[in-house]
Write a structure and sequence with these properties.
The chain is of the alpha+beta class and 110 residues long. The chain has one domain: Roll (Nuclear Transport Factor 2, Chain: A). Helices cover 26% and strands 47% of the residues. It has a 7-stranded mixed beta sheet with strand order 1-4-5-6-7-2-3. Strand 5 and strand 6 form a beta hairpin. The model has no long low-confidence stretch (mean pLDDT 95).
């Protein structure tokens, strides 16, 4: 797919950020899921919750999917982000495992 349509687990994470719902955010990930933000990895429920608190929900974030391409279990997006930590556009890479996210990676900008 090549539009802003994303798999349900990706949409669940985006919705959780925009609803400021930390528990829904953590629940979107597998038990060993992780967030990698410019190479800083936060894994498992406690790590995912920590990232949500410092960089997303705790920072008043709003996320808008601008474009998305899904191939197999991997979805690459371009997204708009507005928060007290960062404002602008970034790339994101999601790996879906079943009905949850195995990972959400924000690669460093070049």
């Amino acid at each position: 797919m090549s539009d802003s349509t994303v798999p349900a687990p990706v949409q669940a994470m985006v919705d959780a950020i925009n609803a400021a719902d930390t528990e829904a955010f953590v629940s979107a990930f597998t038990a060993d899921g992780f967030v990698s933000d410019w190479g800083t990895v936060k894994s498992g429920p406690d790590g995912v919750r920590s990232w949500a608190g410092s960089d997303a929900i705790g920072a008043g974030a709003r996320m808008t999917v601008l474009s998305a391409v899904t191939e197999g279990d991997t979805t690459r997006i371009r997204f708009g982000w507005s928060s007290r930590v960062f404002n602008g556009e970034s790339d994101g890479i999601f790996v879906v495992e079943g009905d949850k996210l195995a990972s959400f990676t924000i690669p460093p900008a070049h």
